[in-house]
Task: structure prediction
Amino acid sequence: MYVAIDDTDSRSSMCTTFLLTEIIERSGLDLIGIPSLVRLNPSIPYKTRGNGALSARLGRGRGRSRRIGRFGNHDVMAFEQGDEAMEPGELLDLADDAVHDLAVLDDDNTNPGIVVSSGKLDEEFYWRAVRDVLEIREAEDFLSRSGCQYRKIKSGRGIIGAAAALSWPAEKRTYELIAYRYPHGESIQQSRKFSLAQQADQISGTFNNVDRENNYPAIFPRDRTPVIFGIRGRDPEALLTEGFDMVESWGLKQDRLLMYQSNQATDDHIIYGAAALSEMRSYMIRCRIASMPTVKMGSHYFVVATWNGQEIKLAAFEPTKQFRKVVGSLRPGDEVTAYGTYQEGAMNLEKIEINSLSSIYARSPPVCKDCGRKMKSHGRRDFRCHYCGSKTEMPAYMQIPRDIRTGPYDVPVIARRHLSRPFRMSADGRQE
Ligand code: ATP
Result:
């Protein structure tokens, strides 16, 4: 039986991933397969942080198993196969109790949803939830048609995410090893956090651990939540061996450790080949720069591009830090492939590939054709040689070297979205 939940936390406490560990623990059942942490449309206004939803398959494990976590002093195993061990209604009640005990229900923006299903659901729903904007009613219709049981708490908006977590096909996936302490982890000094994040970066296949340029240890959450840290990687074996050993050696007080499979860093939210752009959706577009860059309020960079016969603003806001310099270096005629969310008429860039750079020339006084010396400018179309007295209207043109090269540019780790796949993720997952 699968259980999925979403929308249980607030910015100041709880995390839906921890609530899932509580449901696993209370059920006393085995995990069949690896639980899923599924990120959805990153521009949804109702989200608390990263618009993540969770699902897990629970039952009586059969066949091969391996350790994917540790709760207290017992290992958490994931089995390759399993048998049903709980009625859907019973699992729904158990999850409902856990949500009522732990979710932040007094926060207006917390509207939990729980779904129980005997199988995975049609992936079309996932693609809409990760790229589009859905109504609660659409999720209800979909779940009823799919024969699932579900429960809405307050407005129950969380059933959208829960249904999407169950319809994620998990074909393109990465992994995350998350450690918890309830209600929140011990406070760790910033300098120690930085050094631990650098150590995590040594685990094979991991990515987005640390931003050295901005002194940001990205494995640690910014808000107070039961999450102590999360280490992301492309290689589950490395996280479960090297990763496990490393985090145990850190000696942090942790109650639970669990590895998830995830759609993080897959670019699943990006729509390719769109004919028009809609608000709150993310796109990849090939376009040509049409203006000089401008800077607003001293820190947000914009440049106009033409795409599909229309003008569109590309934006690099302050949180994208050094990436803004890339936008600031673009010039009319440059050809780029831009990735980002279309919001309030501008494309909020997540990454950009510069395909070609235009040649830029500056006018300067020419060399005198008669005596070979440099002429002087006496106005826009008036160049004179002070040695032999020759005159000409024709300036010389000098090519100005560009301060940027063609190629891919990511925003720094500090500004990276969960779903965004960095260009610079090499075959073994390490950033170059
Ligand atoms: P956390 O990641 O810390 O669990 P969150 O950022 O996931 O928090 P939620 O509190 O889960 O945020 O709020 C997101 C809400 O938006 C959920 O109710 C979810 O069902 C809903 N939602 C997710 N995707 C869509 C979508 N595409 N259209 C409409 N609503 C959506």
The first strand starts at residue 2 and ends at 6. The mean pLDDT is 95.
